[in-house]
From TrEMBL:
One of its GO terms (molecular function) is structural constituent of ribosome. This is Large ribosomal subunit protein uL16m. The gene is rpl16. GO terms for cellular component: mitochondrial large ribosomal subunit. It is found in: Mitochondrion. The lineage of its organism: Eukaryota, Viridiplantae, Streptophyta, Embryophyta, Marchantiophyta. Transmembrane segments: none annotated. Keywords: Mitochondrion, Ribonucleoprotein, Ribosomal protein. Belongs to the universal ribosomal protein uL16 family. Pfam families: Ribosomal_L16 (PF00252). PROSITE patterns: RIBOSOMAL_L16_2 (PS00701). GO terms for biological process: mitochondrial translation.
Length: 135
């Protein structure tokens, strides 16, 4: 799974995903990609599910790049626990994705296959995404 081995702090504050970011909005590795239409959070399970959906569509001799990394821990308290008594334990990891960022890139495939794979991958994270092509 995609999460860090070590972090500086065990628990982080929630934070917000607001503004558009300049870096990560252009294709760097492949010819095709999926571009985020809104800001939000993607869990490490959703990143892996989208990567698997893309790779299953392409089978062999294709390249896939995942450009987001789930490095922020998410905490939660157990069920039926009273308020207070500190912050809960780490339950999972997320990646913050800003509007216009490209989380997945692909290459060495036809345009139609890339569009179909981008549609499959866009359903996994729970954010609205669109197909993006190098021009």
């Amino acid at each position: 799974m995609l999460y860090p081995k070590r972090t500086k702090f065990r628990k982080y504050r929630k934070g917000r995903c607001k503004a558009c970011k300049a870096d990560g909005t252009q294709l760097s590795f492949g010819r095709y990609g999926t571009k985020s239409c809104e800001a939000g959070r993607i869990s490490y399970q959703a990143i892996e599910a989208a990567r698997r959906a893309i790779s299953r569509k392409f089978r062999r001799n294709s390249e896939i790049w995942v450009r987001v990394f789930a490095d922020i821990p998410i905490t939660s308290k157990p069920a039926e626990v009273r308020m207070g008594k500190g912050k809960g334990n780490t339950k999972g990891w997320i990646a913050r994705v800003l509007e216009g960022q490209i989380p997945f890139e692909m290459d060495c495939v036809s345009l139609s296959n890339a569009q179909q794979a981008a549609v499959l991958a866009a359903h996994k994270p729970g954010l609205s995404m669109k197909f993006f092509r190098w021009s």
